[in-house]
């Protein structure tokens, strides 16, 4: 029996903004659709002091919450992903086994069916940060769902940034962290890439400084194509046929083109500003030392967008780290691979083994 929490009377089953293009081909294997839930936080105060009268977070749940409320896993997608990004991995016997776990998947603030610039505020939407996203999600879990401690926090790319902040600021509320393509800080190359993406969108005449009447779709499409070479490696590009490359570029363009431009620009601005040391006067070591939970770090050596240096720094800065590199030339794409591929099988083994080790430690 699936547990439902009547948090809001505003339930929507509308379509959400684009999935990461590399998961689209696997929709047929996705978990059964769950009815969307909405959690509303009144008068949410952001890091910069701005206040949103109603912060809305959309989420789905799968499986059954145990009587002890200790089997919940929260899944957090990447920057252009939504609560369906992990669907192919959720279900009986799958990586996130709904026969064992109560799985929560959400739309991060700023996109999907959660509160977003696309709701009508546009450029007037608060300039939110990774920590703002984390605090909203923490409120959903602790106040909305009444769960004091998660079995695991799972973050993919930007989601791993959010999960790391959670482990730093609410260490008592997560029994473990699983971070795919993590970093404690956006490096200079990453920041420049985001700047170029935002500039490309702004070059579209429809942009109008973000006060547009028509979504600047061509600017968004070009931005998606610009990002593509950074989410794969040179080796991958070398072995891609012209036909496959054209298809991948077009799909990346479609993914970006499905977004509202202000929503995408503000999402990437939060991504770009990531730095766990900021609240610790720039002391990265002090920030990472706050993480108490056993942590699995999965990175790919060929990743040009979020390199392995950040993951290694996290490994060296926290007490209970398990670190593994995905053997692949897929670059950033590798952490999104699904079981059935070499990369996906590697991730599946690592995650299942890590979750089993937690059970063994707890003596369950």
Structure notes:
This protein is globular. The chain starts with 36 loop residues before the first strand and ends with a helix. Mean pLDDT is 91; it is low at 1-31. The protein is of the alpha/beta class and 364 residues long. It is built from ten helices and eight strands.
Topology overview:
Blueprint: E1 37-45, E2 51-62, E3 72-76, E4 102-106, H1 130-144, E5 152-156, H2 158-169, E6 177-180, H3 188-202, H4 217-227, H5 234-239, H6 242-257, H7 261-272, H8 284-288, E7 295-300, H9 308-317, E8 321-326, H10 342-362
Parallel strand pairs: 3-4, 3-5, 5-6, 6-7, 7-8
Antiparallel strand pairs: 1-2, 2-4
Helix pairs in contact: 1-2, 3-4, 3-7, 4-6
Summarize the structure.
This protein is of the alpha/beta class and 364 residues long. It has helices spanning 130-144, 158-169, 188-202, 217-227, 234-239, 242-257, 261-272, 284-288, 308-317, 342-362, and strands spanning 37-45, 51-62, 72-76, 102-106, 152-156, 177-180, 295-300, 321-326. Helix 3 runs antiparallel to helix 7.
């Amino acid at each position: 029996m699936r547990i439902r929490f009547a948090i809001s009377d505003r339930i929507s089953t509308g379509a959400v903004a684009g999935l990461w293009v590399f998961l689209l081909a696997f929709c047929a294997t996705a978990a059964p659709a769950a009815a969307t839930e909405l959690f509303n936080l009144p008068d949410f105060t952001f890091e910069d002091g701005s206040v949103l009268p109603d912060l809305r977070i959309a989420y789905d749940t799968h499986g059954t919450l145990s009587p002890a409320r200790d089997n919940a896993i929260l899944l957090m997608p990447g920057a252009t992903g939504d609560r369906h990004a992990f669907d192919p991995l959720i279900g009986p016997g799958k990586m996130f086994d709904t026969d064992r776990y109560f799985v929560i998947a959400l739309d991060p603030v700023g996109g999907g069916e959660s509160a977003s610039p696309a709701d009508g505020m546009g450029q007037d939407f608060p300039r939110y940060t990774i920590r703002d996203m984390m605090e909203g999600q923490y409120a959903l879990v602790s106040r909305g769902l009444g769960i004091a401690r998660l079995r695991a926090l799972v973050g993919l790319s930007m989601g791993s940034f959010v999960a790391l902040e959670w482990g730093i600021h609410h260490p008592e509320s997560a029994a473990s962290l699983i971070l795919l393509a993590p970093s404690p800080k956006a490096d200079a190359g990453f920041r420049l890439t985001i700047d170029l993406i935002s500039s490309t969108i702004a070059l579209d005449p429809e942009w109008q400084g973000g006060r547009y009447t028509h979504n600047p779709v061509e600017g968004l499409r070009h931005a998606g194509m610009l990002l593509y070479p950074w989410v794969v490696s040179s080796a991958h590009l070398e072995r891609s046929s012209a036909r496959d490359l054209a298809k991948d570029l077009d799909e990346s363009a479609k993914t970006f083109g499905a977004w509202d431009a202000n929503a995408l620009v503000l999402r990437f601005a939060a991504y770009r500003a990531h730095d766990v040391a900021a609240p610790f006067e720039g002391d990265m070591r002090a920030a990472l030392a706050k993480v108490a939970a056993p942590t699995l770090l999965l990175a790919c050596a060929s990743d040009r967008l979020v390199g392995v240096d950040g993951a290694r720094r996290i490994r060296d800065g926290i007490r209970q780290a398990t670190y593994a590199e995905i053997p692949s030339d897929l670059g950033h794409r590798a952490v999104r691979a699904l079981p059935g591929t070499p990369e996906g099988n590697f991730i599946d083994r690592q995650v299942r083994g890590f979750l089993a080790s937690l059970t063994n430690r707890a003596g369950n």
